[in-house]
Amino acid sequence: MYNFRNDYSEGAHPNILQKLIETNLQQQPGYGEDEYSLQAKQILQQKIENDDAAIYFVSGGTQTNLLVISALLKIHEAVISANTGHIFSHETGAIEAVGHRIITVESSNGKLQPEAIQNVLKEYTLRPHVVKPRMVYISNATEIGSIYNKAELFELSAFCKENNLLLFMDGARLGNALMAENSDVSLADISQLTDVFYIGGTKNGALLGEAIVFNNQSLAPEFDYVLKQKGALLAKGRLLGIQFLELFKDNLYFQLANHANTMGKKIADAVNECGYLFLTDPVTNQIFPILPKKVIVQLETKYLFYQWKEIDAENTAIRLITSWATNEEIVNEFITDLKEASYIDK
Amino acid sequence: MYNFRNDYSEGAHPNILQKLIETNLQQQPGYGEDEYSLQAKQILQQKIENDDAAIYFVSGGTQTNLLVISALLKIHEAVISANTGHIFSHETGAIEAVGHRIITVESSNGKLQPEAIQNVLKEYTLRPHVVKPRMVYISNATEIGSIYNKAELFELSAFCKENNLLLFMDGARLGNALMAENSDVSLADISQLTDVFYIGGTKNGALLGEAIVFNNQSLAPEFDYVLKQKGALLAKGRLLGIQFLELFKDNLYFQLANHANTMGKKIADAVNECGYLFLTDPVTNQIFPILPKKVIVQLETKYLFYQWKEIDAENTAIRLITSWATNEEIVNEFITDLKEASYIDK
Amino acid sequence: MYNFRNDYSEGAHPNILQKLIETNLQQQPGYGEDEYSLQAKQILQQKIENDDAAIYFVSGGTQTNLLVISALLKIHEAVISANTGHIFSHETGAIEAVGHRIITVESSNGKLQPEAIQNVLKEYTLRPHVVKPRMVYISNATEIGSIYNKAELFELSAFCKENNLLLFMDGARLGNALMAENSDVSLADISQLTDVFYIGGTKNGALLGEAIVFNNQSLAPEFDYVLKQKGALLAKGRLLGIQFLELFKDNLYFQLANHANTMGKKIADAVNECGYLFLTDPVTNQIFPILPKKVIVQLETKYLFYQWKEIDAENTAIRLITSWATNEEIVNEFITDLKEASYIDK
Amino acid sequence: MYNFRNDYSEGAHPNILQKLIETNLQQQPGYGEDEYSLQAKQILQQKIENDDAAIYFVSGGTQTNLLVISALLKIHEAVISANTGHIFSHETGAIEAVGHRIITVESSNGKLQPEAIQNVLKEYTLRPHVVKPRMVYISNATEIGSIYNKAELFELSAFCKENNLLLFMDGARLGNALMAENSDVSLADISQLTDVFYIGGTKNGALLGEAIVFNNQSLAPEFDYVLKQKGALLAKGRLLGIQFLELFKDNLYFQLANHANTMGKKIADAVNECGYLFLTDPVTNQIFPILPKKVIVQLETKYLFYQWKEIDAENTAIRLITSWATNEEIVNEFITDLKEASYIDK
């Protein structure tokens, strides 16, 4: 059985493992003060074109989200998120556990628009009987594979500034967003248009690791304390530094995201050719084809994937995720199997 | 400069890196459900001789401590620790940040005795104006290199049971404790005599990783939620599973701890031969020789270590830490340099 | 201007003030151990027909809610509430601030039905990536004046038991609910059908005060610690005890609630006579008449009340609240003014 | 039995009850926006000679402490307190429950000096592995009856400013401190020399109530949210406003504190006359005579008080607390009984 359920089924890109071996016995300072981490941060500052950024490496997405939000919000402040947002839907109350409400907004495409945020601000005016909305959390790519274009980010950014809201982008799949065919956004744009964001490594070639970027170092000058307090400061921080060094010193990060997207696109094209539709526009490495149930049953004999949402008595949307590690031969095989099942079904 | 400051200056034992490479492209379920983690847990259950134990792998010691304590204590309950305890002295208020007081007890040797705990219980009786002591936190080896023997653990365990206190052992350096020359304690003893403990990997050959062991699975039946909520559940849990598998499938863990201790012992013997004393008895991989300041100045030209505590105008206790990765040739060189400096000083 | 905005515009029922004066210089133990508190608890146990209940007096509703919820839920557990629920809409994130998510359910009438809760349970199954629903919070009367009948409570209670959910009733306006014309529920029923509830004093004749009732004292055997920790334990607990003693020793509590409801009914009848409708059925002391805007403008020259919701270009629902202290003469005057404005409008 | 155990055994000063009756049926806005609260705040601003102060009324001391500390500290910051400080010794972990460590300092007289704080700062330098000390908490009068003079406060204040520490004074017994014979401190001094303090009402004539004073309103501009979130905002805030109005409009507050101190002094003088010593200098309404155990046994037949600390086989220090309500006749009787018991003992 080949697994299309997620983008963390394999280990790390071989270059990373190779570098771990090469550097293994070099003695280094602990807690992120190692030379690899320092170098990786420098390279990232160049990639995002922002010398004023403060960068920290941590282990995972939920950890990142609770660190950033607990460091930036006062105790009576809240964060606004799409109802599909990872902090609301898949993090076991991590944000509430550090004391903050997540104010959710219905979103059919996983994205937030200024209008929806404006409605929240109107709803939350009865001071002091309500929390104070102070941050907007968005994901790019979103949890359902959609992406923000530059105009949308620009508009969101301006709206947040006008309304004294911090803009935080969850970039667990930022590589996939930036490398999407229809993307007009660069890492430097992200750095300019958000207050804080993170660059996800775990889902794009690393064993583990996310790079938190505060675009202005005055935003969280004592974030190091928070890292340690929440159990996020690794003794062997080199493990994170080495990975981001490998991922960014030669643009490996973008190549890997591109591969994942390309594999997704290949499958999406085949879905199209078979005459099937999608739940959401397939632009990154997460695609949601709507297939006849009979076809799904057939595919499930060889492939693992989630049935995402029943559409009607005959059809269901499934979720397929490709990654940096997805084998193109197996993608080809999947396409063949899909076409065959589709042919039989008709 | 060779670094004797800590036991996390290098990467991982080569076997671990080798296994990461071998298994790298095997697709595995995420979040700790991979086959390596499952296998590692089985092996650990055998090593601790306790089929009823529930085992979880996480990234680091502070994370472990806050997870265990927040999962087991009610909101008005507190944990008792030596004032040298890591949770009190080096974790940036991680335990208070999850809502609990650490009640500290003065301890000259880093260890806790029933008598001291009894005094705390007497002090904390003015219910409901005081917190309720509910857990005892000990470290083995302690933060200053001392260890508990079986009689001490037995007595502590009995005292805790009588007084409705949970006994939690921080085993960041458990390997070093168990492999100390004068130790009469086994992993199985630890499992029998504590309620919960952890086996530290980060400081004994792993890139990162601690194994939390609840000795009775009914103690924290919903700990998986807590792991996720606190950001401790790695998507690629295989990284932790593989490491513990390598460390424990053939007793590598104990060999590595033994090497660290042996290197420490070698230096300690040389210190003895030079006629110097120790701040605390040198039994594990942390030793605290009291050296003339002139000797220290000399050693500092080639080696990194902490000056721990000034003893008098002429002498200071230093801390030297050896590890699984400590190079024996350098230890020999250090001994030569020590003897030379000592000779000149006299 | 006469204020119909809320039921806490005046002080306390005169009997209470009288009793405060009579007992003023009697020395009493502090922290709720005074004889008035003990006596009031005994009387309440009789009224709810439950000797096994554990009762605590505190200052206000938000305080009550955060105390009960933080005492009963584990850190990964959540509470389910109608989106109109006070804990979600008017308590500044008090529940999130003690670490718990409020899972909201859309409700048009302010009430929760098993079906809606069942949907939440279905949504929150992806353990451990989601919180665990563990408590159901309902208000009676609800925040929009509706009440639960016995059959509804019975059904909810059974559903909660089957699904391992605690049922918590916010009784800030419990007196008004119980004394509603169409109510078939008694205090004893509430005690039997919920796990924990509170009897609101602040909005029914007291200066301040809510009585928290755990219907089974084994539910929160160490609640006294929590009271103190959250700053809810008054040194002069007598102030709360005396009030509940006065309110319950001769059924004053019910008489006061009845007066409030009767005043509401009088106005509601007049609204009916004028041919106007209501946003929700007027059964307690909160009524929501839908009036022509012109009529509203007229009434606003003499009375304070909230415009609750615009219905259409011509009409708006307003909220009128009556209380134990509402002056019947002014109610009569209001009715006259309403009829006059209504007449002119037609 | 007459109770000298504490200063909250009686109700409120009669003027307060009288005013509650007079104003009882005046309709007022809720949540502290009533005219009595507004007027009381104005009067307090005059008394402390600080128009820039922001004042809030709340119910009790533990509540005050947790509100102030949680509003002012960031999540990685800690508060320094004497080990006798109320926040450490008698508040059930209220401060840790909102996430902050209390760093304690041994103090024989209940007071903090700059030198002790300086030692804490030296100890807490290993950023980011330790919390950041950010606030100094002192009590005046202290928990053992001692007081700060102006020079001490001046020195503390200067030290805190130099070291970026906020100075917070717990004034649960501030009246007693200011009215002590040897006091050279005024309310205006307190306002100038601290960042935030509170004026205790509960122990000096009120039913309940403490006035929190931020001496600079920019210090906590959104404190209203915190009040509500922690359950501290009373619907009938008038109850607190009326009390502070009565206590301060004509200096009743100071007269009541003076009475309490005078009663304490009377007993202290008698203790002196009998030739007995004190555990701490008797300057406020808490005195700690060291009496022969036989004398204590005798007194215990008629009076309630705490045995504070055994001094030797023959003698024990007891604690006697007088208050605004202490009856002078009974004080005289107590003195007679003391002298008689003392005479017999000799």
UniProtKB/TrEMBL annotation, chains A, B, C, D:
It comes from the Bacteria. SUPFAM superfamilies: PLP-dependent transferases. Its cofactor is pyridoxal 5'-phosphate. GO terms for biological process: amino acid metabolic process. GO terms for molecular function: lyase activity. The keyword NAD does not apply. InterPro entries: ArAA_b-elim_lyase/Thr_aldolase, PyrdxlP-dep_Trfase, PyrdxlP-dep_Trfase_major, PyrdxlP-dep_Trfase_small. Residues 14-288 form the Aromatic amino acid beta-eliminating lyase/threonine aldolase domain. Keywords: Pyridoxal phosphate. Belongs to the threonine aldolase family. This is Low specificity L-threonine aldolase.
